[in-house]
Amino acid sequence: MTEFVFWFVAALTIMSAAFVVLNNQLIYSAVALLFTLFGIAGLYVFLWADFIAGIQILVYVGGILVLVIFGIMLTNKIRSVRISHKSIQQGVGGVVTFWFFIFLFIALSKAPWAVSTAVEPNGTVREIGILLLTDFLLPFEIISVLLLGALIGAAVLSRGEA
Amino acid sequence: MITLPLLILFLPLVSFIILIFFGKKLPRQGDWIAVGSIVTTFFFAVYLFIQMILTYEPGFSHGASFSWIDLDAFKIDLGILVDNLTIIMLLIVTLVSSCTHIFSLEYMKGDIRYSRYYAYLGLFTFSMNGIVLADNLISMYMSWELVGVSSYLLIGHWFEKDSAADASKKAFLTNRVGDIGFFIGIMLLYTAIGSFAFGPIFESIAIGDSIAGLTLTLAGLGIFMGAVGKSSQFPLHIWLPDAMEGPTPVSALMHAATMVAAGVYMSVRLFPIFTPDALLVIAYIGAITAILAALIAITQNDIKKVLAYSTVSQLGFMILAVGTGVYTAAFFHLLTHAMFKANLFYCSGSVIHSMHHALHEAHDHKTDPQDMRNMGGFKEKMPITYVSMLVSTLAIAGVPFFSGFLSKDAILAGALAFGQHHPEHFLLPIFGFGAAALTAFYMFRLIFMTFHGKPNMKDIFKDIHESPKEMTGPIVLLGTLSFFIFYTLPYYNPISDHGWFTDLIVPQTSAVPGSMTANEIAEHSHHAHYLAMGLSIAVATIGILLAVLMYLKNIISAKNLSKRFGFLYDWSLNKFYFDENYNRFLYQPFLRLSETVSWLDWEFYDKYFINGFGRVTNLFSKLSGRVDYEGIDQGLVDGLGRISGAAGENLRKIQTGRLQNYLLYVVAGILIIIIVQAF
Amino acid sequence: MHSLDSYLFISAMLFCLGLFGVITRRNAIAVLMGVELILNAANINFVAFSKFNGMNLDGHIFGLLVIVLAAAEAAVALAIIINIYNNMNTINVDDAAGLKQ
């Protein structure tokens, strides 16, 4: 049962991702991206990463995707849902990407991954919190500074000519 | 004994070299160098002559030689030979040359090539002395050629005149024809005997094992051909009358006294090698020349032409004497002829000079100053010239008390003796005496037409005057030497040639075995002597009488005679059409032959063969050029440039400026690197 | 059984699709979407390795940091895009070809 669901979620994710990159209509791409992100969150759940799954949906879908849609709206003269942009060099890009995928596939299937089993934890939130403020304090602080910088930068950039 | 002859030989050469290079820059154009050197050699020659008289040794002979080429198979020694013959010849050459130099001081004054004229005179004197002093055939031949060159240069002195340029070429080329024979003769002797020097040659012929018979005759005749050319004998006599285009002093020196006498001298020197057959041919050639030239001279109107033909005729006499064996007489006549013929030329030069001045005064440039029909009655105006010329004319005509009588008489005696002993050759004395008669006739005709009678051009006659002393000096000197006395000392007999000359010049026996010895010849001619003397006086008288009747007293009209014998007159006046016939039968066919050969060479050989080479080369070079230009230059070199350009153009397109393209390249690059690493 | 390989396979696919999108799309925002896909693929990798290595939570932390970074970057990128749109009136990436030779 879980198998089936797993592969269903995986297929959903991948097909939505394909839709994102192949479709000419921007809004459709954005919606497909939504589905992709949801699918990825589902995969996180399968990976016992409950906290990450939650954060994924909150930040990615709720924040970034909304921002993307705002961007779409602001940079096009929207009259209808039909905002089409053609793609370029699909042929060569497709070939190169395909072969890249082949390479990756071969590499990952051949590589001797050091795998060890684990027990399903009760929840990861507590552990992540502890880790953030003990082992990973420095990255945590740096990331906050980065966020501050991004905030200021975005604000400056979008101010326009005052 | 050899220093003086060597000095005599080389002083004129030094004068030539100085004058040819520096002549124009010297004061008076250097004529004093030439005159000085020649007169010095004359004094040296006089000294030698006095020595000869004092020692009075008939067999005197002195020689010196040095080895010029010495390879084992081939040796040539050059040297000089001095004997009585040489000394007398040196005296003649230096005397006449000095007179010419002094005479030319006045005659050639103001000439445009004054210094070159004297330079060439020096060259000529050097080469003439070279012939005289030679003791072997090679140095004689070398000097022989040099004399020819000097003659060419001097005859063509006024080369702006076409006639002078042509005459000088004719003289040189005709001489060359004779010299071919000379050289063949020399080579025949050399291949048989192995030496060029006279002594060894005479000895070898006398022994008779190396060369004899027909070969020796041919060798002798070959060598004699040189004399035929140089001394203007029939059939190569055509150049001497034309050589009168040169200045008169040159005519006196070369074409009267010395150069033309070289042939006679050579025949005398080489007398021992002539076989009796060769001598016979020589005698006939001499006799034919004598009578032929005399026949032409009687109708000529140009004063110098008369003298020229007279010279040819007298040379014929000398050659006749060599041929009949009385070679002392031949050399004697050479000596006397040199004196009086040179004098005759100088006197004619004096007359022509005077005519030039008179015509110039009258601004007449068309009249020929040398034509005797324009002269007449000059004897009061030019007394010195007249007397001197008269003396020399008496000498050449063979009148007793004058030098010419003695020598001509000796020759005619020899011819008569020969005719007596070989009655089949009766023509020889007949031609001889005939020529003597004609000589007397035409020489007196010259005197009467020029100096006697009424002047033919009255308007210029008043300006005729005697010449200055530079010209009259030599005239007086040589006129004096035309008397008999100088040749018969220490004897005073005017009709016998016995004197220092005949004592010192001993006739040589021919080296050819079986010839008549000199004594036999002398005896024969002695027998015929009185008969010959009588005959020669008779013919001379007849000739002079005829001239008096026709030209002095005008009893017989020359004009009527010439009309009655129109055909003969025509032939004589036009020199028997020798030149015209030579032209028609010799020159023109040869010119046509060379035209044909030239056409073959030009149209066939050059056009097809040589030009073919050119075309092939052209083709090849065009091909090579194309390979180079189109192939290498445009293909390789430009190609490299084009490749670079194209590569640049195309590679430029990578830089699209689009980020996504760059990203693609990155990914592709990674892929490629990985694939390469995997393999 | 969903082993590590299957997750890696999925993330590889997502990565390539994202790469394709970046290389190919002309609209700047579409390119941004491709970039998000790539980042997500990497995230899946981190979390998958974390689970299959004895539940080492380092992977989770890293994934968190990646998400934060992605958010910051998306914000700044959109700000830039909007600026470009205001200045050049187009967000076609071809028109921003100032590096073209």
Blueprint (SSEs and pairs):
The complex is a heterotrimer of chains A (162), B (679) and C (101).
Chain A: H1 2-22, H2 26-46, H3 50-74, H4 90-110, H5 125-133, H6 137-157
Chain B: H1 3-22, H2 31-55, E1 61-71, E2 74-83, H3 84-107, H4 114-133, H5 137-155, H6 162-193, H7 198-207, H8 213-230, H9 239-242, H10 248-257, H11 259-269, H12 276-297, H13 303-324, H14 327-361, H15 383-397, H16 403-421, H17 427-451, H18 458-461, H19 469-480, H20 485-488, H21 500-504, H22 518-527, H23 529-552, H24 558-564, H25 566-573, H26 578-652, H27 659-678
Antiparallel strand pairs in B: 1-2
Helix pairs in contact in B: 1-2, 1-4, 2-3, 2-4, 3-4, 3-10, 3-14, 3-19, 4-5, 5-6, 6-8, 8-11, 8-12, 10-14, 11-13, 11-14, 12-13, 12-17, 13-14, 13-16, 13-17, 14-15, 14-16, 14-19, 15-16, 15-17, 15-19, 16-17, 16-22, 16-23, 17-23, 24-25
Chain C: H1 4-24, H2 28-51, H3 58-88
Concise structural overview:
By secondary structure, chain B is mostly helical. Chain B contains 27 helices and two strands. Chain C is elongated, with a radius of gyration of 17 Å.
Question: What is Rg of chain A?
Answer: 20 Å
Number of separate strands of chain A? 0
Oligomer: heterotrimer
Order of helices and strands of chain C: HHH
Proportion in helices of chain A: over 70%
User: What is the overall pLDDT average of chain A?
Assistant: 87
Q: Given the helix and strand composition of chain A, which structural class is it?
A: mainly alpha
Low-confidence runs of chain A: none
Our estimate of the beta-strand percent of chain A is under 5%
Q: Can you summarize the main beta sheet of chain C?
A: none
Rg of chain C, rounded, reads 17 Å
Helix/strand-derived category of chain C reads mainly alpha
Write down the overall geometry of chain C.
elongated
| Through-space gap between termini of chain C | 53 Å
Number of helical stretches of at least 4 residues of chain C: 3
Largest interface: A-C, 81 and 72 residues
Number of helices of chain A: 6
Poorly predicted sequence stretches spanning 5 or more consecutive residues of chain C: none
Number of strands of chain C: 0
Share of β-strand residues of chain C = under 5%
Average the pLDDT over all residues of chain C and give the rounded result.
87
